[in-house]
Amino acid sequence: MHLWNNAKSLSFRKLSSKNLIAMDGTPAPSGESAQNRLYIKRGHVVNHDGMQQADIYIEDGSIRYVGSGADFVVPGGCRTIDATGKMIIPGGIDPHTHFQLEFGGTVAVDDFYQGTKAAVAGGTTTVIDFVIPKKGESLLEAYDTWRARADTKVVCDYGLHVAITWWSKSVRDEMKILCQERGVNSFKCFMAYKGLFQVTDSELYEIFETCKELGAVAQVHAENGDVIAKNVQKLLAAGVTGPEGHELSRTEEVEAEAVNRACVIAHQTKTPLYVTRVTSKLAAEQVSQARRRGLLVYGETLASSLGCSLTNVKPNTLAYYVTSPPIRPDPETPRHLMKFLALDDLQTTGSDNCTFNKNQKELGLGDFTKIPNGVNGVEDRMSVVWEKGVQTGLIDPQRFVAITSTNAAKIFNIYPRKGRIAPGSDADVLIWDPQAVRTISASTHHQACDFNIFEGMKCHGVPEYVIVHGRVCVENGLLRVAEGQGSFLETPINPPFVYDALNGITNRNGDDKEARNGLQNLDLNQKHDVPDSYALPDKYVPGPALSIISGDSAVSTPHSARGHRPDGTKDMQQSTFSISEEMDTSGNRACIRVKNPPGGKSSGFW
């Protein structure tokens, strides 16, 4: 039997029964609407820098209250969810997707509807996709193309990075327009794909300088494209034409050399650098060493590299795993990469979701250079990271939140709107069951591709509820989304987390405790026994209520904690308690004011 929430509330845009589906594909009743008031009680709120037992109140797509139930009166007409024994965590942010991408003479099968729907099903509530112009194409025209593909289809918020695939004064000028007028703050350069996307070192230097001038984040796909081109020639000449040639042509040191070179060029230009999709131990070591030398470098690894190695992949399916840089054959690579995440040498986890069906992958069976590059991951990323990180004892839930959500939000300047459970943040929230188990399979996933590289993987850690802008989109195995319910998310320039560090300013936000892994006395050189499913402490002292107090998004804890109120069932209609908004002269929200709260004193928080 399929249960659907009947609470009266705001309606989905473009609402139709065909867009509302259960996890098994069963249509929802027509007329379904999203609620605008939601109360979550008795959960364990996990942010990157702390954990507390707390209740959460959500209204009109925003988190309005986080704290003890004893300090809050539940409004009338508000749906309540009991999160006892569950974690309440920020929705995942996938900083690396490629939906509907044209590549290798074909097109990725996940478009922005299918891809973001799958993302939400797995607990990711924000994605950042890549605009990839063809050589000679206007960046602005390519940007407009991506917006046209996405705006009417996305079911969660999305942002855009823009790739620099060629270099000229006009490209430089368009980068400035993208930063100042189009909500873009990051640009990616390819050091591989010679003759297609690859830029030279000299161009890389100038692009980095331009990023620094604009207050943008420079990104690289780091592989030595010239070496790869030579290796490909040799392999094909030697008769190595099958998919095994892909990894042989772009070995770990080919990736690591490019990472080191990018770090050196970024250092010479004094530009912050974000290294995308680090897939090998050697490459991660280059990022680690650069950071220890004081370079401002951030590293991303992928669900595919954390959840897979090529060791046990059957030769006749190897083509389905082709992506660049490759998934590595060493079975220890996933554990090594998770250790780098635990130690803060790598900061984020993406999916690089770029999906093709089997018949598309098989276009290159006789010539590995013609296999479309890309694999799935946007739906399974959160559970794979939990399984390989928390479940194995290498990271704790706080670090999990950091590497799946908060760090990406900070680097791309959407924090604390995204990536945090706090008043004023968007109500992109997961109720995460650390003891639930699911088995990944193409037969049950929501992506358009007809295979799954994680097929058969058993994952502990499942989102029981996924809440997107206050709408319950996943509940008890049911997925409810509508095309176009998401929005474009601008990423402002000069992200403080990046540029404050560049300028020697530390800990601007009062909430940050420079949290790393959170696990004490963890020896990452040792293998760890797999524990039971992550167990919450038997008893928590309820944490204090939180409120936004400044435009700089500093978070304070101004209220003293009192005992957790058993049910929090008092009706707002039976009290004089109210929440209202005050606007500044420009019409922007300046203050949320609480009138007559329990305790009697009105308060406002900016």
From TrEMBL:
The keyword Transcription regulation does not apply. Its EC number is 3.5.2.2. InterPro entries: Amidohydro-rel, Hydantoinase/dihydroPyrase, Metal-dep_hydrolase_composite, Metal_Hydrolase, Metallo-dep_Hydrolases_sf. It comes from the Eukaryota. The modification N6-carboxylysine is found at residue 188. Residues 87-472 form the Amidohydrolase-related domain. Carbamylation allows a single lysine to coordinate two divalent metal cations. One of its GO terms (molecular function) is metal ion binding. It catalyses: 5,6-dihydrouracil + H2O = 3-(carbamoylamino)propanoate + H(+). GO terms for biological process: pyrimidine nucleobase catabolic process. One of its GO terms (cellular component) is cytosol. Belongs to the metallo-dependent hydrolases superfamily. Hydantoinase/dihydropyrimidinase family. This is dihydropyrimidinase. The lineage of its organism: Eukaryota, Metazoa, Ecdysozoa, Arthropoda, Hexapoda.
